[in-house]
Amino acid sequence: MTVTRLAPRPATRGAALPRLIVLHPNDGSLTIARVLARRGVAVHLLTSPAFAHALRSRCVTGTVLPDPAVAPERWTSELRRLADDGGGVLLSASDAATTYLSEHRAAIPAALRSFESADGAHLGLMDKHRLYELAAEAGVRTPWMHLVSTRDELDAVRGALTYPCILKATLGHLAREKAGFGTTRLDSEAELEEKVGILLGLGLDVVLTELVPGPETALEGSVLVRTASGEVALRYGRRKIRQWPVDYGVGSMLESFDVPEAHAHHLRLLEHTGFVGIASCEMKRHAVTGELHLIEINVRIPGNFGLSQACGADGPWRLYASLVGLPLDAQPRPVPGRKVWLPEEDLRTVRFRLQNGLTTVPEVLATFRGVRDAGVLSVRDPLPGLTWAAELATRRPRRLVREALARSSRPWRR
């Protein structure tokens, strides 16, 4: 069932500022809404049930919808309604929403402008195999890679593999939804058989890639917003402090960091593909050669996009203005060492690290120095965070009740 909550629109909304509609919002989207509300922009969220607590924000209006892959007609109908009700501009904050916008752009009213189009640029960078092909064309270094779609193709590449290596679904968001993982490390032939078998059994193509040696601190992130004219409207770098899952996951605490070489490689790839929009690129510096290797690119609002505001780059406004077509002054220089903290994922990784002796409480506390954005948590806009905390406190008891009910419904066996 669709649930709609209407929050007060910003009183200072100007007629010249189109409404922003965010599809599948995340923590970074909340930062965008809070910043833009202060500048008079109305923000509307089309959210998943899992992030419905964002609708408690005083800065947004919104609707809860099912996954666009399951009910694309519901999304198209809602967007047509919004087009008739004042229009606006669209930003995606999930892979599923980006896929929907790219594949259904022709059915969405032209009054709702988006970065995504039918040219396939977004979809090409989302597909891990196609991404590495495009990178090779652009002269951007990548790990070695083998595409596997069938058992026969797996057998054909066995002899070329070295362990450890990395297994990725070509479309990671589908694998995480269906199998519970999108990227994992393989240390043996047995793990290869097990993990690849799971993904192939679900009808998912996979790539097997080199494990670039080096710690997670060797990962460098470049976030760029490229306009239709080829200008870079936003540029900032970041590196992970912690991530979840621990080895190959999403950053849960990150800091702003100078990454000029990563920016150059990233921009070269975007220019080669003609990409327009926001892209978050992750590269890793090889522990032996010192060379940067492309790992992946996300073509949506990152969950850690609050870092673009925390580091002083004015990311929310520059992203919005570049989509709307508003003029921009020179970007402020990002301040290194500013941090963003995403509490839900970070609580998991901190607990894991403490339980496994990978860190200590004083070490964890020390990392909070420099945090300027905390995702869902905000003193000025507290209700989303309070709602999220209440849900978190009751999530485990609800899960235990569901498991108990499931056990009681099973036939008794001796």
Automatic annotation (TrEMBL):
Sorted keywords for this record are: ATP-binding, Nucleotide-binding
Family matches, as InterPro entries:
ATP-grasp (IPR011761), ATP_grasp_subdomain_1 (IPR013815)
Describe the location of the ATP-grasp domain by residue ranges.
132-324
User: What species is given as this protein's source?
Assistant: Pseudonocardia broussonetiae
**UniProt GO MF annotations:** ATP binding; metal ion binding
The name under which this protein is listed is ATP-grasp domain-containing protein
